[in-house]
Specification:
TIM Barrel; 9-stranded parallel sheet; two-stranded antiparallel sheet; globular
């Protein structure tokens, strides 16, 4: 597999706030994603969830399915129960030829709670780490046997959010647990995406390329906003439109021989950020950064 550019449907709508872009049909998302130059797209809330339905739709637009988010609850249920819950999702990704599954632990998560400030996000106690790590490792091994690499998505408002938590997760899990590096979420959490890319390049199996508007981030932190409120304020944008140094992020990945997807993911209110305009901006900027880093 070579380096490929994809996009997440959050440009057009939002799974946690489905009223955003609710009037825009799936066919528009797909046509505009392709028009902007992307080769693939991740799952969103209007996608059919069987390969028989989804495959011909994507084929009409010349798009591949990149992957799709799965919110796990391994702190609350054992590996067998989690695998049973995930089976329809795993089956879809496998049938569509995906290489990774986007995976986040959402037990106790607050990112979808519109009235809960981020300062109240959950943290893992030592007893929680002792439960999560072996279950996550076992889940990842079982997933790998199905041809999918687990791509752990650190995320604001969840139990794995900070740079230190990412470091511990990588230190205590086997290689089957891959890392999804999300430049926007890590920057929001106060981390350094370039430093994490340098430190964990060998474990990174998927990349979400999200930029940050620094002034909005500062206001969001000062006001201790809920995650979705910060999104509506415009904290995220596409690569090249904010303060993330994507050249510094991509260089260590290129040096380590990263292959796979670079995905533009920038949740915004489509009423304020015209989706096709921002999709094009993100594609063109990320293409420039990728060419400079990967050659």
């Amino acid at each position: 597999m070579t380096l490929r550019l994809g996009i997440n449907p959050l440009t057009w709508t939002n799974d946690d706030m489905p009223e955003l872009g609710a009037e825009t049909p799936l066919e528009t998302w797909l046509a505009e994603a392709r028009e902007a130059g992307f080769e693939g797209i991740e799952l969103g809330n209007k996608f059919p969830r069987t390969a028989a339905e989804l495959s011909p739709i994507l084929a009409r637009h010349g798009l591949a399915l990149v992957s799709g988010w799965y919110g796990a609850r391994l702190l609350e249920r054992d590996v067998e129960a989690e695998l049973n819950a995930a089976e329809p999702h795993i089956a879809l990704l496998s049938a569509m030829g995906c290489g990774v599954m986007v995976h986040a632990e959402v037990s106790r998560a607050i990112h979808g709670q519109r009235g809960t400030p981020l300062s109240r996000r959950p943290v893992l106690w030592e007893a929680d780490w002792a439960v999560l790590i072996p279950r996550l490792a076992a889940f990842a091994r079982r997933l790998k046997a199905r041809g999918l690499h687990l791509a752990y998505h650190h995320h604001m408002g969840t139990v794995i959010e900070t740079e230190a938590e990412i470091d511990r997760l990588m230190a205590e899990t086997p290689p089957e647990v891959g890392l999804l590096l999300d430049t926007g979420h890590l920057s929001f959490a106060g981390g350094d995406p370039a430093r994490v890319a340098q430190r964990h390049a060998g474990r990174i199996v998927h990349v979400h390329c999200k930029d940050i508007r620094a002034a909005v981030l500062e206001r969001s932190r000062q006001r201790d906003l809920p995650f979705l409120a910060a999104v509506l304020e415009g904290v995220f944008t596409v690569p090249g439109d904010g303060c993330v140094d994507f050249s510094a992020v991509l260089r260590p990945l290129a040096a380590r021989g990263y292959v796979g997807w670079l995905v533009v993911e920038a949740e915004q209110d489509p009423a304020n950020a015209h989706p096709l305009t921002y999709a094009r901006m993100g594609h063109d900027a990320l293409s420039r950064f990728a060419r400079a880093a990967f050659g």
